[in-house]
Amino acid sequence: MWRPGRWPRWSSRAACHWASTASGSRTATAIPDPRATWCGSREYPNVRSVKVVRDGREELVNVDSAPDVVVVIGGGRMGAGIAQVFAGLGSEVSIVESSDEAASAARRRVADGLAKAAERGALPQDPETVLGRLTVLTDFAALPPQADLVIEAVPERADLKIDVLTRAEARVGPESVLATNTSSLSVAELGAALREPGRFVGTHLFNPVPASKLVEVVVAPQTGDEVVRRVRGWVRALGKTDIVVRDSPGFATSRLGVLLGLEAIRMLEEGVADAESIDKAMELGYRHPMGPLRSTDLVGLDVRLAIAEYLHATLGERFVPPQLLRDKVAAGELGRKTGRGFHDW
Ligand SMILES: NC(=O)c1ccc[n+]([C@@H]2O[C@H](COP(=O)([O-])OP(=O)(O)OC[C@H]3O[C@@H](n4cnc5c(N)ncnc54)[C@H](O)[C@@H]3O)[C@@H](O)[C@H]2O)c1
C-alpha cells in the first residue's frame, strides 16, 4: 500500500487514484515510484498521465519519468533556467561553468529564478529544498559520470560547443544522453565530433525556460530513436510540449522567428515606424504575444546576431544581419540583460 512519505523527493504528490488512457479513465493502483516509467510504458501502455489528489484537489500529472541526474554546461540565461526546471522536477543537477565568478553568478541566477517562481506560486516546494539539489562546478573532472542527461548551453559558437561536449563525453557513462540547446547550429555537425554521435540530440528550450511551453527536439540523421524517446519523455515530465524537427538551419522556430525579427529591424532602420509601433503591429494586428523587437531584446541582440550570421551563411541573403543590429551589439546595447536594446528595460 502506498503511504505518504514513501516518495521523499515527490512528497507533494499524493495518492494516484486514476489513470487516463486513450479509451477513457480507469482506476489505477498506487504507483510505487512515480519516477519509474512502468506506469507510462509497461503496466499501462496507453497511460501518459494520472489523476492525483494533491492538497485535497484532483489534478492531472504527467507520469513520464524525470532524469535522476542532469548536467548543464553553461549557467547563463538559458542554462540557469534549464537547471532550475530540472531541479524543480526532482533531478540532481550540476552546472559546469567556466570560472568561479561565472559559477557564483549561475547559482545566483537559479536562486533568483526559484524565488520568482515561489512568489508567483509556481513552485510547490521550498526554493531552498530545490536549490539543495544544485551543485555548481568549474571542473569537468568533477562532473557526475552517472548523468542521464548532459545539456550544453554555452554561447552560440560551434568550436566552444564541441569543446565542452567532447570534454563531457569523456567523463560520462555510455547511457548518458548528450544534448545541445543551440538555437541554430547543425546538430549533425556538432555530433560528428563526438565518439558516439548516436546519443546526441538537439533540445531547443526557450526563454524564459520556466514559463515557456515548447521544446524543439532536433533530430540529426545519426541520432538514435531511443535517445529521442527518452528526451521526449523528459520534456513531457517538465510539463512542456515537444515538437520533433529534422536537423536543418534554424530548425522551425529560429528560422521563422529570426526572419521576422530581422525584417522588423530593417523597418526600424528605414523609418517605417518606431519600435513600439512595430511591436504593437504584431501584438495587436496579428495577436503575437510579443512584438519582434521586444522578443529580440529578450533573447539578447548578441545571441540574435550570432544566429542571423549562421543562417545567412547557410540559408542565404534573406538572413543578412541589418547594420542597426551590428551597431547596437558593438555599442553594448544587448537588450534586457544590459537594460537597453530596441526598448529600455
Ligand atoms: N537567450 C535565449 O533567448 C536563447 C533561447 C534559446 C536558445 N538559446 C541558446 O542557448 C545557448 C546559451 O544562450 P544564453 O542566452 O544562455 O547565453 P549566455 O551568454 O547567457 O550564457 C552562456 C554561459 O556559458 C558560460 N560558458 C562560456 N564558456 C563556457 C565553458 N567553456 N564552459 C562552461 N561554461 C561556459 C558563460 O559563462 C555563460 O554563463 C546558446 O546556444 C543560445 O543560442 C538562447
UniProtKB/TrEMBL annotation:
<dbReference type="Pfam" id="PF00725">
    <property type="entry name" value="3HCDH"/>
</dbReference>
<feature type="site" description="Important for catalytic activity">
    <location>
        <position position="204"/>
    </location>
</feature>
<keyword id="KW-0560">Oxidoreductase</keyword>
<dbReference type="InterPro" id="IPR036291">
    <property type="entry name" value="NAD(P)-bd_dom_sf"/>
</dbReference>
<dbReference type="Pfam" id="PF02737">
    <property type="entry name" value="3HCDH_N"/>
</dbReference>
<dbReference type="InterPro" id="IPR013328">
    <property type="entry name" value="6PGD_dom2"/>
</dbReference>
<dbReference type="GO" id="GO:0070403">
    <property type="term" value="F:NAD+ binding"/>
</dbReference>
<dbReference type="InterPro" id="IPR022694">
    <property type="entry name" value="3-OHacyl-CoA_DH"/>
</dbReference>
<comment type="pathway">
    <text>Lipid metabolism; butanoate metabolism.</text>
</comment>
<dbReference type="InterPro" id="IPR008927">
    <property type="entry name" value="6-PGluconate_DH-like_C_sf"/>
</dbReference>
<dbReference type="GO" id="GO:0006631">
    <property type="term" value="P:fatty acid metabolic process"/>
</dbReference>
<dbReference type="InterPro" id="IPR006108">
    <property type="entry name" value="3HC_DH_C"/>
</dbReference>
<comment type="similarity">
    <text>Belongs to the 3-hydroxyacyl-CoA dehydrogenase family.</text>
</comment>
<dbReference type="InterPro" id="IPR006176">
    <property type="entry name" value="3-OHacyl-CoA_DH_NAD-bd"/>
</dbReference>
<dbReference type="GO" id="GO:0008691">
    <property type="term" value="F:3-hydroxybutyryl-CoA dehydrogenase activity"/>
</dbReference>
<feature type="domain" description="3-hydroxyacyl-CoA dehydrogenase NAD binding">
    <location>
        <begin position="70"/>
        <end position="247"/>
    </location>
</feature>
<feature type="domain" description="3-hydroxyacyl-CoA dehydrogenase C-terminal">
    <location>
        <begin position="250"/>
        <end position="345"/>
    </location>
</feature>
<protein>
    <submittedName>
        <fullName>3-hydroxybutyryl-CoA dehydrogenase</fullName>
        <ecNumber>1.1.1.157</ecNumber>
    </submittedName>
</protein>
